[in-house]
Amino acid sequence: MPKLVLKGGTRPPWVGLAAAVWVQIAGGSSYNFSLYSHLLKSVLGLNQQQLTVLGVANDIGESMGLVPGLACNRFPPWVILLFGAFCCFIGYGAIWLAVSRTVPNLPYWLLWLTHCIATNSNAWFGTAVLVTNMRNFPLSRGTVAGILKGYVGLSAAVYTVIYSLVLKKSALNLLLFLTIGIPILCLALMYFVRPCTPASTEDPSERAHFLFTQAACVLLGLFLVSTTILDATTTPSDAVGYTLVAIMVILLMSPLAVPIKMTICAKTKTVGPRVDSSEPLASGGSDSSQIEPLLTPSSSATNLGSFYENDDASDVETLLAVGEGAIHKKKRRPKRGEDFKLREAVIKADFWLLWFLYFLGVGPGITVLNNLSQIGISLGINDTTLLLALFSFCNFVGRLGSGVISEHFVRSRMIPRSLWMMFALVLMSIAFLLYASGLTITLYIATGLTGISYGVLYSMMVPLASEIFGLKNFGVIFNFMQLGNPIGAVLFSVLLTSTLYDKEAAMQGSITCIGQQCFRTTFFILSGVAGLGSIVSLILTIRLRPVYQMLYAGGSFRLPQSSGH
């Protein structure tokens, strides 16, 4: 395949980031399950376990990203987005046909499969924009991951506002909107999400641009929470509702102000020379020596080299021996911080420590999200849209905030990002104990804490994986990590939560369980699981501390020298 042409200049990466914001909002469609799950249950006559299994299908589809991860090294982003739009249209379209009774008696297994296909579109959307923007801004990985993952966290609140103010809380119309609206949006934006040549040195203006984007993101989050509370406590007129939605759209467009400002100002000063980005953006068969490094070796690379000096001290002797035919030269394996292939990464202890730490956090987190409606109803809260909006906003705070905080401390103190994952898991363990108390006030507090913790885990895993295992095969490695999501959902949501819930409901002689006993045992178990995850995170942090001291010794991340593969 021919090389993928990279877009030059300083403005295109920011245009791509602004477009990626909308794609990430579209890629949060799986959060809508709690908004239409009651319709599935009533129209199709499902019990709680069947409904939970459909929720797990959402998680499985969203996390099946290995194929998109491989594809992002073979095809341009617009191809990835196009296929995602196709999955979205087919999947949600089939669900709408079943719920609207246009196609009656759809087999349960086929309904499960359509949920997988529908949310698998999110894996294609997320991989396309995340991998592209991480490569376009390789020096600000934590910040970029925090922003993009933050907007995914806000997507639930965005859909809640649309569901309440535009669709008048019609779950059927919401499914039709997901079927048609998301594919059209992604088709319109796919041209702007494109790989660009990254800067070889940091641009001082980038910090201000990122701060503006983060501030716009925070403002949007506050607006969404305020709008949701307003809708829950009053009955806005149609005019007020549509005005609020228009303001939301303007706030979503605010990241475009950065490239517009750059165009208007037309700065004359030159930034660092731009070099060709690595060819993971391009296709397969080229020599890897042509695609590394993304950046020229720097002081950090030198420090990393000294970190491994015991391995390289006899390079001269080895070369001489090779020349004399005494030994055969072998390709050395990559070190942490260099570019790994998936098969090289999976034999590393750090890979599995990160995977299990992520699994032990997102598994319990997704269990709460999938059952949030039933948790609220069991405690006497029939309208759970406010709970979903609270979870969404706190999820956003965790994603964006952890990106900002970890980026500061990783540059100033060289503290591994896994430390913040440990704090998040401790917080999550406490939240589950609050859930178990069964009080209304602690329900809201616990939902907020769980949302923050869930957001931190998602946001930190992304740059952490890229820093340990490199950007070259980041799409595949990142999506392999995300397999912890559906596996955790099966174990904790289906086999644990729904089983205990249905057992308690049967004792009450109903399919709906009422009372704090419905989820109490589940929450005690999930609290222990999150506590175990915090221990795993501490172990990983101790192991990564010397690596981060080398990678960030110059106060800014620099890609190490090629590992030779």
TrEMBL record:
<dbReference type="GO" id="GO:0016020">
    <property type="term" value="C:membrane"/>
</dbReference>
<dbReference type="Pfam" id="PF06813">
    <property type="entry name" value="Nodulin-like"/>
</dbReference>
<feature type="compositionally biased region" description="Polar residues">
    <location>
        <begin position="285"/>
        <end position="295"/>
    </location>
</feature>
<feature type="transmembrane region" description="Helical">
    <location>
        <begin position="242"/>
        <end position="260"/>
    </location>
</feature>
<feature type="domain" description="Nodulin-like">
    <location>
        <begin position="13"/>
        <end position="260"/>
    </location>
</feature>
<protein>
    <submittedName>
        <fullName>Protein NUCLEAR FUSION DEFECTIVE 4</fullName>
    </submittedName>
</protein>
<feature type="region of interest" description="Disordered">
    <location>
        <begin position="272"/>
        <end position="295"/>
    </location>
</feature>
<feature type="transmembrane region" description="Helical">
    <location>
        <begin position="452"/>
        <end position="471"/>
    </location>
</feature>
<dbReference type="InterPro" id="IPR056555">
    <property type="entry name" value="NFD4_C"/>
</dbReference>
<dbReference type="InterPro" id="IPR036259">
    <property type="entry name" value="MFS_trans_sf"/>
</dbReference>
<feature type="transmembrane region" description="Helical">
    <location>
        <begin position="143"/>
        <end position="166"/>
    </location>
</feature>
<dbReference type="Pfam" id="PF23262">
    <property type="entry name" value="NFD4_C"/>
</dbReference>
<feature type="domain" description="NFD4 C-terminal">
    <location>
        <begin position="347"/>
        <end position="548"/>
    </location>
</feature>
<feature type="transmembrane region" description="Helical">
    <location>
        <begin position="109"/>
        <end position="131"/>
    </location>
</feature>
<keyword id="KW-1133">Transmembrane helix</keyword>
<keyword id="KW-0472">Membrane</keyword>
<feature type="transmembrane region" description="Helical">
    <location>
        <begin position="78"/>
        <end position="97"/>
    </location>
</feature>
<feature type="transmembrane region" description="Helical">
    <location>
        <begin position="172"/>
        <end position="193"/>
    </location>
</feature>
<feature type="transmembrane region" description="Helical">
    <location>
        <begin position="483"/>
        <end position="501"/>
    </location>
</feature>
<dbReference type="InterPro" id="IPR010658">
    <property type="entry name" value="Nodulin-like"/>
</dbReference>
<feature type="transmembrane region" description="Helical">
    <location>
        <begin position="419"/>
        <end position="446"/>
    </location>
</feature>
<feature type="transmembrane region" description="Helical">
    <location>
        <begin position="521"/>
        <end position="542"/>
    </location>
</feature>
<feature type="transmembrane region" description="Helical">
    <location>
        <begin position="209"/>
        <end position="230"/>
    </location>
</feature>
<feature type="transmembrane region" description="Helical">
    <location>
        <begin position="351"/>
        <end position="369"/>
    </location>
</feature>
<keyword id="KW-0812">Transmembrane</keyword>
<feature type="transmembrane region" description="Helical">
    <location>
        <begin position="12"/>
        <end position="33"/>
    </location>
</feature>
